[in-house]
Amino acid sequence: MSTTQKKTVYPYIPNSTPQARQFMLDAVNAKSVDEFYADIPKHLKLDGLLDLPAPKLSEFGLKRHVQKLLNKNTSTEDNLSFLGGGCYQHHVPSVCDEVNQRSEFVTAYAGEPYDDHGRFQALFEYTSLMGELLEMDVVNVPVYDGFQAAATSIRMACRYTGKRKALISGAINPDKLKMITTYCQADVDIHVIPVDQKTGGLCRASLKDLLDDQTAVVYFDNPNYLGVIEDGEAICSLANEAGAVPAVAVDPISLGVLAPPANYGAKLVTGDIQPLGMHMQFGGGHAGFIASHDEPDMVMQYPSRLFGIAPTEVPGEYGFGDVAFERTSFEKRENGQEYVGTAAVLWGITAGVYLATMGPQGMQEIGEGILQRNCYAKQQLSKLPGVNVPHFDQPHFKEFVVNFDDTGKTVAEINLALQEKGIFAGHDLSADWPELGQSALYCFTEVHTQNDIDTLCQALTEVL
Amino acid sequence: MSTTQKKTVYPYIPNSTPQARQFMLDAVNAKSVDEFYADIPKHLKLDGLLDLPAPKLSEFGLKRHVQKLLNKNTSTEDNLSFLGGGCYQHHVPSVCDEVNQRSEFVTAYAGEPYDDHGRFQALFEYTSLMGELLEMDVVNVPVYDGFQAAATSIRMACRYTGKRKALISGAINPDKLKMITTYCQADVDIHVIPVDQKTGGLCRASLKDLLDDQTAVVYFDNPNYLGVIEDGEAICSLANEAGAVPAVAVDPISLGVLAPPANYGAKLVTGDIQPLGMHMQFGGGHAGFIASHDEPDMVMQYPSRLFGIAPTEVPGEYGFGDVAFERTSFEKRENGQEYVGTAAVLWGITAGVYLATMGPQGMQEIGEGILQRNCYAKQQLSKLPGVNVPHFDQPHFKEFVVNFDDTGKTVAEINLALQEKGIFAGHDLSADWPELGQSALYCFTEVHTQNDIDTLCQALTEVL
Amino acid sequence: WDEPVVMELSAEGERGILIPEAEQAVRDAAANVYDTLPSSMRRKNAPALPEIAQNRVLRHYLRLSQENLGADLQVDIGQGTCTMKYNPKINDQLAYSPKMAELHPLQDESTVQGILEVMHEFEKIIKAISGMDKASFQPRGGSAAIYANAAVIKKYHDAQGNTHKDEIITTMLSHPSDAACAKLFGFKIITLYPDDDGYPDIEALKAAVSERTAGLMITNPEDTGIFNPRIQEFVDIVHEVGGLCAYDQANANGLLGITRARDAGFDLCQFNLHKTFSTPHNSGGPAVGVQAVTKELVPYLPGPLVENDNGRYYLNDDLPHGIGKVAAFYGAASVVLRAYAWVMNLGAEGLKEVAEIAVLNNNYLMGEVLKIKGSSAPWAKGKRRIEQVRYSWEELHRDTGIHSEQLGLRMADYGLHYWTSHHPYLLPEPATFEPTESYSITDMDEYVRTLKAVTEEAYSNPAIVRSAPHNCPIHKIRHDNFDDPERWAVTWRAYCRKHADSSNG
Amino acid sequence: WDEPVVMELSAEGERGILIPEAEQAVRDAAANVYDTLPSSMRRKNAPALPEIAQNRVLRHYLRLSQENLGADLQVDIGQGTCTMKYNPKINDQLAYSPKMAELHPLQDESTVQGILEVMHEFEKIIKAISGMDKASFQPRGGSAAIYANAAVIKKYHDAQGNTHKDEIITTMLSHPSDAACAKLFGFKIITLYPDDDGYPDIEALKAAVSERTAGLMITNPEDTGIFNPRIQEFVDIVHEVGGLCAYDQANANGLLGITRARDAGFDLCQFNLHKTFSTPHNSGGPAVGVQAVTKELVPYLPGPLVENDNGRYYLNDDLPHGIGKVAAFYGAASVVLRAYAWVMNLGAEGLKEVAEIAVLNNNYLMGEVLKIKGSSAPWAKGKRRIEQVRYSWEELHRDTGIHSEQLGLRMADYGLHYWTSHHPYLLPEPATFEPTESYSITDMDEYVRTLKAVTEEAYSNPAIVRSAPHNCPIHKIRHDNFDDPERWAVTWRAYCRKHADSSNG
C-alpha cells in the first residue's frame, strides 16, 4: 500500500527510473555509475550522503515550506515605504512582467543569433532605447549592476587616457565607493572629492584643487546619493578642460526631465536600470549600463558585449551579432578588457520593454511627477517641529536628506516607531554620514500619493 | 506644465490619438463619428456621459485601487480551510499555471484547426486523458461546470431513451438540484430519491420503489454530496435492469483509487474538473465534463463540441476537428441539441496538463492520501466530546458530515469561533439539511498535513 | 514543432510530480481504509495515463501554445462577431492574486468583502451602461446568459399564469443560442429573416406576434454590423401583446455610452464580458455573461444576488420566485474582477472612446476592404456600419472559383485569422471582420494588405489558395473522419481501437 | 514573424501606459520646481523613444520571445558547459511572490527574517556540498565569483605581507574569467596547457610554481568532461609554495554529493547557481555565483554576511579586513531562493541522483555521438567522461570541408542548439554537448538523430549545410558590419546615422 520502500523517481530527472538507468548502463557497457568516477581518487570520494535537511519531495510540500519562510517577510506591498538609496520602488508595468516571465526568455542562454534571434533583437532594442534616453550611440549589454558599471567606467577612462588618477565624488553610495576601490586597486589611484556640506553636492573648490593633467577621470553621480541634482555642466567642463574623462552615473528614470549627461559634456555615462521595470527583489533587480559616444578608441575599452545590427543576405532583413568581440576576455582571456560573463540580460530586455511602453511622454511625466512629489514632501516634512531638510534649496530628484537632530531622537528610534505604524521610513544615514548628524534619506516616487506623504507626516508628528 | 487639458490618449486604444481619428475620418469621408450612428434614433441616444466612477487612468493607480479591494479578502492561503461542498482546495501544479497563463492560450478564441492547431490538440489530449481516467471513449469539450454537465446528462438520457422520468439521488448539492430542475423543466419529470439517514447514501429501497419502465435515467453523485462513497454497482444494476440510463457524477480526482463508473455499469458520467489543476477563484475554476461510450445514438445526444483526431494529407501527421457538428445549435439553431457556446476551454486544457503531469501513479497516490487523511480525521474528530460523525462506518472520500448536536452549540457559533482562530471550518449544513441537526461538511485533501488536522481538533477543543 | 500526441510521450516509470504523502501516524490510522469500500468501488487497474517527466510535459504544452494564434500575437480582426480586443495584462495579474485565486466560495461573507464589493460595484456599472435595474453575473458565458434570460421569460409568464404564451421570436442573424435556449424551455421558435436591406423584417414581426408571443430575443446590431433603426418599434410591437423583450448585447462594443438597452424599452439584456469588456477569451472560456433586467423582473433572477447592507456586502439567496441556480456558486468571479478593472481604468469618457474608435476603425476597414477586387458589403448599400461588417466574396468566387473558406485557409498561412460566419450563409461566400478599438491604422492596413495579396493569388494562382494551408503547423485534414461513427475518434483510446493499423504511434 | 525593430513601430501620439499624476495640491506646491534647477540640467528635447500603444508593444515582444529557443522549448544539450537543466516552475512562482519581489534591501532586518533565513539555510547547504566553512552569495554571476575569489587571494596575500606573490596559475581549458579576473588585480597569468591525454599538465605546473605563485585558479573537470585525477597533487604543489587554490566549480553538476572541493584541499571555490543549481539562465543573467572559503579566509570575504544570533538573522558588515563590496546590496536574492527550493526538493539522495544521472546521460550520449561518422572524442581515449564531452569533427571536416560551426547553423534549422566551444580551439572543429540530468533517453536519441542527419547532409549535400541557416527567423548575417568602426552600429540611432541610405525603416 505504501510506496516508501520504492526508489524515488524524481520529476526533474526523467532517467531516474530504474529502467532508464539500467538501459543506459547496458548501452555503455558499465556495471554501475561508479565506473564513470574512476578518475576520482577513492579518498576524495564522499562516503555516504551529504548532510542536508530532509527534502520536501512533493511540490506542494515544498511550496508550503518556502511560503512559510517568505511569510516571515513584510514587504513594501504590506507597508508604506520611503526607502531609496540605490534601490527604488516604482510601478512595474504589467507588460514588463509578462515579457520577462516568458519561458522562452527565462530559460534561454547562449544560443546563436539565428536560433536566438529574438533575444539578440530584444537586447539590441534595449541598447537602442537607452541610446535615445542617453543621447549616446554606444550602450553595452547589461553588466551586474550600477556599481559594476561605475567601476568599469573608471577603469575604461584610465585605459582610454593612459592615466591612473581618478577623482570620485564623495556624494556617492558608500558601498559603491568600496566596490570601486576594490575593483580598481591594481591600476587606479582613487581620490575622493569631498561633499559640500551646505549644498549636499560635490565641492567644486576641492575638485579644482585635485584636478590636474594626470587626472584620468572625474566621476560623479547625478542626482547624487543624497538626492541632489548636481550642476553637471560645471563639473564636466572642469574635467574636460583638464583633459580628464567626465564619467557620470545617472538615474535613468530621471531623464525625461533632466538633461542626459552627454548634453553637458559627459563622455562616459553609467547607471542602474533597476528603476526601469524591475521589482526590487531585496536588491536582486539590478543591472548596470555603460554608454559612450561612438568613438572607436572608447568602444574598444568596453569589457562587455556589444550587440550590433547588420543586414542579412535577404534584403530588408536584419540580424544581430557581437561588435568588436576581440576586445573581450571571452576571446582574449587575460588580454581582453577586464572580464565578462553572465550578468543581467533579462533585466536589459525588461528595461527595453519598459522604455518602449513608457515612450517619450511617459518618461517626461514620470520625471516631472517625481520632482513634484519631492518638492511637496520637502515642504511638508520641514514644517514638522524639529525636522529639517538641510539642502532644502537645492534641486532634488527622488530623494533628499531629512535631519532630526532638533527632535532629540535618533533616526533609529524614529524609524522603529514608524515601522510599528506600518511605515518603512527613510534610510538611516547616521552611521555612514556622521557629519549629517541624525539624518535619514527619504525617497518619493510616482508610487506615492499625496495621502501617502501626508500619512508619513502625520505618523512622524505622533512619533516625535 | 500640466497635461490635464489635453485629450487623454488611451494605452488600450491605439487610434485614440487626435491624429489617427482625423486620418480615418478623412479616409472615410466623414465629419464626425456621429455619422456612423445615423441609424440610431436621436431619442435613443445617450445625452452626455455614463454615470460611472472617476477612472484610475494610470496602471499603477488602478492596481493600487483593486489591490486595496482584494486585500479585504482573507484567502485559504491566509487561513486553514476545511471547506468543500463542490469546490475543492487542492495543490495546483506549477506547470498548470505556467501553461494556462500563456498568452497564446489566454487570448485565443475560435481559430481554425490550422492556425489554432495547438488549442485543438491540447483539447483532444484533454478528452483523451479523461477518457483513460474514466475508461470511456467519448468525452466532450468542457461545459460550464459540473452542474451543467449533470443537467445535460439527464436531458441526454431522456432523449436517448425517449422517456421523461428522471430519478435523482437526494444526496446531491442542493444548488445542483435547483439547476437541474430549472434546466430540465420543459421535458423531464424529476423525482428525488431520498437519502438513507443511517448511511448518508441513496436509499436503495426508495430507488426500487420509484424505478419503473418509464424511467429514463437514474442519476447520482459518487462520492455523494455528503462525502459517502455509494455502492455504485448496486445502483447501476437496478437502473440497467429497468432499462434506465445510469448517470453518475464523479469527482475525477478520486479515480486513481475508486473505480470509474463505466466499470460498474454507468452509461453517462459527468463531473467537475475544478479539482484537476484549477484554483478555486471564489467558484470561478469550474468546468464540467460529460462522458459516454462510443455509441452513436448516445454521441448524437451531446450538445457540446466533440473534437476528433484525423490524419492529414501528410502521412504521420494528425489534425483535429469537430465530430458530428450537425448535432449542435451552432449548426442547427433550435433544432440542435440544447445549446452550445463559450464555456471553459482553458480549464479543459489545464486539466489535461494536470493529468499528464500526475500520471497513473500520481492519481493513485493522491486518491489514497485523501482516503487516509479522511480516515484519520474521522477518528480524531469523533474523539472530541460532543462531536459525532454520523456516517462513521461508511467509506468517505474527501469529506464527511460532522455533527455537533451534543455540544449544545450551533455550527454557526462554532465556525465563527474557529474563524477567529484562523480556520475556515466545514460548511454549515443546518439550513439545507435540517434532518442532520447542527452538522457541518468537513473536507480533507492532500493539502492537509497531520498537523493541520490536529490543529483543527485542538482549536475545536478550545472552542467547544 | 512536430509534436506527438501526449499519450505517445509516455516512458515507463517517469513522474511529472510527487504527491505529499500522509504522515506515518495518518497512514497507520488508515491501515484498513479500503475495507469499508465495496470491492466494486475499488479501482482495479491504474488509469492508462502517460508517464512523463515534468520538463517533457511542459515542453509539450509550451510547443502547443506556440502552435496557437492568440490575439496577443497577431492582428486579430478576422474573427468578426468575436470582438477580439486587447486583454490588459494588469487585469490578469490582479486576478492571479491569491486574494482572488485562493478564495473558497463558501467562506463566511465577512472574509470575502473585497470580491463582493467588486461584484456590487461592477453591477452598478452594468446598470449605468444598460439602464437596467439589476444584474446577475451567474451565467458562465454569453449563451448561458441567453439561457438565463429565456428562463426568466418562462418563469415570468408562469408566474402571471400566461400558459398560452409559448412562442419566442428571434432573427436569423441573432446568435443561434437565442433560438436554442428558448427552445429548451419548450418555446416554439419563430425566426425572422432580414429584409432586402438586411434589416430585421418588421412586417414579418407584425405577422408573427400574437397572444402566444412570450418574447422577443434579438441582437442589434446583428452580425452584419447594421443597426436596426426601428428597434423600439420591434419592442413596442412585442410589448403590445404582452411579450418580454430580451436584448442580446453580444455586439455592444460600438454602443457603450451611446445608447442603452433600457432606453429602447427592453426588459432584459445580456453582455459578454469576454467580448465587450475585454476579459480574455481563454481559448473559449471561462467567461461571464451578464444578465441584466428591469425592476419588474428582479424577483425571477437566479441566486444569489450581491447586496449591500450599510456597507456590509452579502449574498442574497432568498429569491423564492427566482429561476434558481444557473451555475455552480457565483459564476466566474475573477472574470468580473477583470472587467471591473477594465472599466475603472477607462471611465465614462474612455468607454465612449472605445465605442467610437471601434466604429471608426470598422468603417475605415470597410473602406479599405471594399477597395479589394471581388469584395462587397451587401445590404444597406452605402450605409455606415457599427462595429463589424459582413462581407461577401460572391464576385471573387464567380471570377475565380475560390470560396470564402479557402481564402481563410490561405490567410492562416500568413498567420492571420479569418472567419467566414455562422452557418447558414444567408449571404454567399461571407466573411466577417471586426477591428474593435484595439487595432491601429497600421494594423488594419497590414491585415488588408495580406487579404489583398491572398485575393490576388485567387485571381492569379488559384491553385495555391485551393491547396492551402501550406505554412501552418499541419496540412489539410481529412474530414471524412469526423462524421462517420465507424471512424470518428474523440479520444486517443477510441482512435487506437478504431485505427490500430493506421496508427502512427 | 517578420518583426521590425521596435523604433519602427512608433506612431505619433500613441501611449503604452499612463502615469499616476500628482494631485492638484502637490502640483501647486511644486509650481516652481524647475526654478532651482540649473538650466543646463533641464532636458530640452524629449528622448526620441518610440510611441506605441500597449498591445503593440506586447505583441512585438511576444513575437520576439517566440523567435527564441529557451531550454523549456527544446532538447538543450547542444550548449555544452552551460549546464542547461530544467528550471522548475514552482521555484519561479515562489520567487515572483510579493514577499520576495517587493522587498527593499534596506528594510529593517526584523522585516526580512524569511529571506535571511533562506540565505542562511542555503549557505549551510553550500557548506555541506563544498566542505567549506563560509559562503557568500554577493557575486551576481559565475565570473563575478571568480573575481571575488581573485580579490580574496589578493587581499589575503596583502594581509600576510606577501608582496612578492604576483602570479596566478590557471589552465587553458578553465573558463577565460579565471585568467581575466586574476589579471584585474595585477597578477601575472601563467596558463597551463593540457598534456597529450587532455589532463592539465602536472609537469608544467611544477615548472611554473615558485615563491611568486599567489594561487591556482582551476576548473575540474574542465570543459572536456575529463576529471583530473591528480587534482590533490596540484593543490599540494601550490600550497607548498604558499599559494592559495581556488576551485572553479562551474562544472560541478556531475560531482554533487560525490566529491567536495575542500576534500581535495582547495581554499576557495565557486558555484554557478544558474548552472548546477537549476536557476534559470534568464537569457544571460541575473544569476548568482556562490563564493565559498575555508575558515582562514573568512575575514577577507565581501560583506555583508548573513549570520544567526539565537534565531535572529542579521547582516554582518563588520568585516574590516574584507574585500568590501563586490555588488550592490546582497546580490540576487531571488536566485538564491530558487536554488534553495531546488535543493530542498531533492535532498541529499536527490542531489546524488542528479550527479549520477548527469554523468550516466553524458556517457550514454557520448556512445551514441561517437557512432556518427566523422566524430571523435580526443584525449583520454577510451576513458569515461564526467558531465560533458568535448568532441571533434576533424574527420568530418577532412572528408567534407564542413566546419563545426556550419554544422551548428544547420542544427539551428532543426530547432536545436549546438555550441562549438570557447575560443581558442585547442581541438580542431570542436563541439561540446552536455545532456545534464534533465533529458530523457528519448530526448538524447532525438538530438543524436538530428545531428546524424546533419552530418549525413554534410557528406551527401554539403552545400545545404554550408548555406545554412534556411529555416531560422533570419538568414545569414553579413558579419562585416561588426568589426569595422565605420559600419558597426550598437544602437538604432548609430545605425540610422551610418546607414541612412540603406536603412529599411
Would you give an account of this structure?
- The complex is a heterotetramer, with two copies of chain A (464 residues) and two copies of chain C (505 residues).
- By secondary structure, chain A is an alpha/beta fold.
- Chain A is 36% helix and 13% strand.
- Chain A has three domains: 45 residues, no CATH class; 114 residues, Aspartate Aminotransferase, domain 1 (Alpha-Beta Complex), CATH 3.90.1150; 262 residues, 3-Layer(aba) Sandwich (Aspartate Aminotransferase, domain 2), CATH 3.40.640.
- The longest helix of chain A is centred in the last third of the chain and has 38 residues.
- Chain A is globular, with a radius of gyration of 26 Å.
- The mean pLDDT of chain A is 96.
- With 505 residues, chain C is an alpha/beta fold.
- Among the domains of chain C are: 61 residues, no CATH class; 225 residues, Aspartate Aminotransferase, domain 2, CATH 3.40.640.10.
- In chain C, strand 2, helix 7 and strand 3 form a beta-alpha-beta unit.
- The radius of gyration of chain C is 26 Å and the shape is globular.
- Chains in contact: A-B, A-C, A-D, B-C, B-D, C-D.
- At the C-D interface, helix 2 and helix 13 of C face helix 2 and helix 13 of D.
